[in-house]
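Write out the 3D structure for:
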Amino acid sequence: MKLSWILTAGLATLIGAPAGLTNVVAITVGYNVNNSLAHNLVLKSDSTMAAWGDNGWGQATPPSGLALDVAAGGINSFAIKTEGTILAWGYDGYGLTNVPLSLTNVVGLAAGYVHCLGLTMSGSVIGWGDNSHNQAAVPAGLTNVVAVSASGYHSLALRGDGSVIGWGDYTNMSFGPSNIVAISAGGNDDLALAADGTVFSLHNQTNFPLGLTNIAAIAAGESHSLALEANGNVLAWGENNYGII
């Protein structure tokens, strides 16, 4: 799950976070893979990174250097360096730390369990890592992409015309409506935020709360979801086995 909105006052009060962690502007949470503990990766306002949680593969030990964005996968982590290239660390299965050399001028990235997507300034997408469900195989002819999201064994892309396409488990499916401004891939559902502040379930989930309006940001997890209202309130729904909502 990735929370891309800026935290109130730029301060992070997070369970288990390192003492003195402040000025956080983005948070990304890794996945619980094979019953291992998740890890957390944050980007601070000075473009440095911090991480904590499961570090069995070094995924919670970010390298030094400055970053523009971050993404946490199952047992690996990724960051966009200030020069527009991607840095990868942690688990190296499926070649995850071998970022494609052609991936430059990167402006966005997203990580699934064991695959990653990089979005370039030209609007093209490159995927790498595990491709057992075709989740890293970007559909031919996919252009004009403005945002990407990934979860588990599937991927999503938001195009400049407001339309969404998904691949992997979905076998290249297009989703409507066509006025989408943000997407978030989850485990049991994918979310889309429309320009008018309404939220859509891309899979018509029965537990999706109808009538969500005035929403500013969304985040889909493995089995629960969050929505940030424009007034700063946070809404949550889905499974609550661990008190996460």
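Residues 3-13 have pLDDT under 50 and may be disordered.
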